[in-house]
Design goal:
This protein has 35 helices and ten strands.
Length: 797
């Protein structure tokens, strides 16, 4: 009972009560009489190392030397010397005796001998790592001897520990003392606790206690001998048992052997200064030492040196010891990127090193840096992040993407660089599934609406592809409102043939989201007219789409006739073979464009000449993923393909609130087309189309009414012409004038504000589009139509 109370008062198994750290399991080895424990902080659980030494008498020599070591370790600071955190001395009662214990708390480290066993390095990788470690210990000894005029007197494997980043650090300062070289007449010992050092580690003058000779020697004489002992133990893998073993040089590398022999010179004054060893030894000139040294003085390098270094680093990292790369180089690289001292090419090396980590380690060591980099103003960094988003995007949580990543990425949608706009668009293929419905509806769709009328045709095409891919992540209300309008009103009327093809295939890939009424009244009428498109590839896709949607209609009709009420609802065909291939094509075309090997990091590829010479054969190559529309460069100046934004909408697709369609005027909604019809039977459907077309539109109702005949059948025909007039097949010459007149005087066209900004049709339909685009308040549109007519009529220019 008394022993239990003593442990409670004096300290339990987890450490004394006044020590703010928990003591864990001990390591098998430690220097001298010390015991080395693993430990953790009681405050935050962070790892530490705890060294303890005990004695029954407070005046015990070991405790006195330990107090000297605590004092020295607290006051001497150097990157290659063990970092001191805390110390305390306690007294505990054990039966009738008093036990005195000294604790030192330091950064978390492991004995060098244990770490070497754990790493199991071989051959050149072992030599490179040993060179780096010896380089660090030599710098620590040089600092003590040359700068502080201190003598450690016990440099050996036991006095070296290794940090979590695999750095070597010197400790065991119990014998450490000032070098008293000025007092040569003094006969007393210069090193008060030299008796703690094993005789095998002592040079001849210290072994004989010839203090006069020690004082006449240079300050580094004793520690240079100790460094030689460390080199022997390191390469032989054996603990030094007697001084004579130092003559065995079979295990010493040839490049280090001359310096090893000079360190162990019998004459103290001839021993090699450790500072000279660092500067002149060829052994320290290797890839690992040079790489880590460059990273540590990165701030002193100019931009050219940094750029050259980081471009070589990914290949260089494969040649270095994997553990050193992950535990030493990776933290240095992440820190350099985070604080802005590293160039943009360093991101490639960071992600390559991160790919060697487990998923958990990647989330802890790499992802926090990447998330912070998204806020960088460096355009090169932003381009790199967007190019490689597919490598780390899956590791990002939905909350981080929605709150920390997307707000910064979204700025790229409106960037002046078309290349950056396109990369931002493609990154949404990875990021959009992790966004909340509020962010998608309130922000992302507005940006995509603007990009679908971007001046660059490749961006317009990729926007359609992206919408087809993220359709499954939209809620039902948003899909009903957005998809058909985006694919028919805009994509199918685009003057860029790959954009029209992408619109057709996006409709097919999302066919399961449309009911029978939408297919019959809104999709098929828009797709059918493209079977006479000038572009062969568009015609082919249009025929496929018509077949697919007609099959859906036929199956619904058959189910309706058989009395299947569920079939009458007709939600489309969710598992048609064409759907999978079309969706895969869209995803491939978007993903392939994002491969860094296919684009220069910062320069845009000018393909205006190739686009000018593009024929229907060129565009037909879209069927294969390698030549999908997403590969078209977005840097060309294509004046007749520019689609201006609607003057009647603020975001192009209207206000979306959680996918619920608000009732407001059509001139505020960029993706409203016609309301879904209630009845699936043909007569009521036609009646509802007629009613939708008759919604009041200011300034055009009287003229529209005056143009309509009173005959009912003729009214339906004319209104159908008016609804799809802007994308219909070219009418005979005798009726083209009336079509232009109607489109210029009425904005009814299914009350769709986007008919005014629809992309120009191919050459055969230039005249109707010019008239249609002349509606509204933009004076440049008629000029655009005139230019297309001139180009068609004067092919020789």
């Amino acid at each position: 009972m008394l022993k239990f109370l003593n442990r409670v008062v004096g300290g339990s198994g987890s450490g004394p009560k006044d020590l703010p750290y928990n003591i864990g399991e001990p390591y098998p080895s430690a220097w001298g009489s010390w015991t080395h424990f693993r430990g953790t902080s009681k405050d935050d659980g962070s790892p530490v190392s705890i060294f303890s030494i005990s004695g029954s008498n407070a005046q015990d020599g070991h405790l006195a030397a330990a107090r000297n070591g605590v004092k020295r370790l607290r006051t001497v600071r150097h990157p290659n010397i063990l970092s001191f955190l805390h110390s305390t001395e306690t007294e505990t009662m054990d039966a009738s005796t008093t036990k005195h214990t000294i604790y030192i708390v330091t950064e978390p480290v492991m004995p060098l001998s244990e770490k070497i066993k754990e790493l199991c390095l071989q051959n050149i990788q072992r030599d490179e790592y040993y060179a780096w470690g010896l380089h660090q210990i030599a710098k620590a000894v040089s600092f003590l001897n040359n700068d502080c005029k201190l003598v450690h007197a016990n440099v050996c494997v036991a006095s070296v520990v290794v940090t979590q980043t695999l750095d070597w650090k010197l400790h065991a300062f119990d014998v450490l003392s000032e070098f008293d070289g000025t007092n040569e007449a003094s006969a007393g010992p210069m090193l008060q606790y030299a008796w703690l050092v094993g005789s095998q580690y002592k040079p001849v003058e210290l072994l004989k206690s010839d203090w006069a000779a020690v004082r006449k020697s240079p300050p580094w004489a004793i520690d240079s001998w100790g460094l030689g002992c460390l080199i022997y133990e390191l390469f032989s893998g054996l603990k030094l048992s007697k001084t004579e073993e130092l003559r065995n040089t079979a295990s010493i590398p040839k490049s280090l052997l001359p310096d090893y022999q000079r360190l162990l010179s019998a004459v103290p004054s001839r021993r090699l200064n450790t500072s000279k060893l660092i500067e002149n030894s060829a052994y320290f000139q290797n890839k690992l030492v040079d790489t880590i040294h460059f990273m540590e003085i990165l701030n002193l390098k100019d931009s050219v040196e940094k750029d050259t270094f980081f471009r070589k680093l990914p290949n260089l990292a494969e040649q270095l010891p994997r553990q050193i790369v992950l535990k030493k180089l990776l933290p240095l690289l992440a820190s350099a990127l985070e604080f802005g001292s590293a160039a943009a090419p360093a991101l490639t090396a960071l992600l390559k090193m991160g790919s060697w980590l487990s998923t958990e380690e990647f989330s802890v060591k790499v992802l926090p840096t990447i998330v912070k980099l998204f806020a960088s103003n460096d355009r090169a960094i932003r381009v790199g992040l967007l190019q490689y988003v597919d490598q780390f995007g899956e590791s990002l949580s939905a909350q981080i993407v929605d709150e920390q990543v997307y707000p910064h990425v979204a700025t790229g949608f409106s960037d002046t660089s078309a290349f950056l706009r396109e990369l931002t668009l493609k990154s949404m293929l990875v990021l959009a599934p992790k966004l909340s419905q509020r962010t998608i509806s309130g922000s992302l769709l507005k940006y995509l609406s603007k990009l679908q009328v971007d001046e660059e045709p490749a961006i317009r095409t990729n926007t359609t592809i992206l919408l087809g891919n993220i359709a499954s992540h939209l809620n039902e209300g948003t899909r009903k409102r957005v998809l058909i309008n985006a694919f028919t009103v805009r994509a199918l009327r685009d003057s860029f043939s790959p954009a029209r093809g992408a619109g057709i295939m996006a409709l097919c890939a999302t066919s399961s989201y449309y009911d029978i009424t939408e297919i019959s009244t809104r999709i098929l009428p828009n797709v059918v007219v493209l079977i006479i498109d000038p572009d062969n590839d568009v015609r082919s896709k249009a025929f496929q789409a018509v077949d697919q949607f007609l099959q859906i209609v036929k199956q619904t009709y058959e189910k309706t006739n058989s009395g299947d009420a569920a079939g009458a609802a007709g939600d489309g065909l969710s598992s048609m073979p064409g759907n999978a291939s079309l969706l895969g094509w869209a995803m491939s075309s978007l993903t392939l464009k994002g491969k860094p090997a296919e684009q220069a990091p910062l320069a845009l590829v000018n393909t205006s000449a190739s686009l000018t010479k593009m024929t229907s054969n060129d565009s037909s190559a879209m069927d294969t993923p390698t030549t999908a529309p997403a590969h078209v460069s977005s840097t060309t100046d294509f004046p007749d393909q520019h689609v201006p934004e609607s003057p009647t909408s603020t975001d192009g697709w209207g206000e979306l609130e959680n996918g619920i369609q608000e009732e407001h005027e059509s001139d505020k909604d960029g993706w409203d087309d016609i309301e879904p019809l209630e009845e699936p039977t043909p007569p009521p459907a036609l009646a509802n189309i007629q009613a939708a077309q008759k919604r009041p539109v200011s300034q055009s109702r009287p003229k529209q009414a005056s143009l309509r005949p009173k005959n009912t059948a003729k009214v339906i025909k004319d209104e159908d012409d008016e609804l799809w007039g802007s994308i219909a097949a070219p009418a005979p010459k005798t009726s083209s004038k009336a079509l232009n007149l109607k489109t210029s005087q009425s904005v009814d066209d299914d009350d769709d504000p986007w008919a005014a900004i629809a992309a120009p049709l191919p050459t055969t339909k230039a005249r109707p589009l010019a008239a249609g685009r002349g509606r509204g308040a933009k004076p440049a549109a008629p000029k655009l139509g005139a230019q297309r007519i001139n180009r068609t009529s004067s092919s020789g220019v």
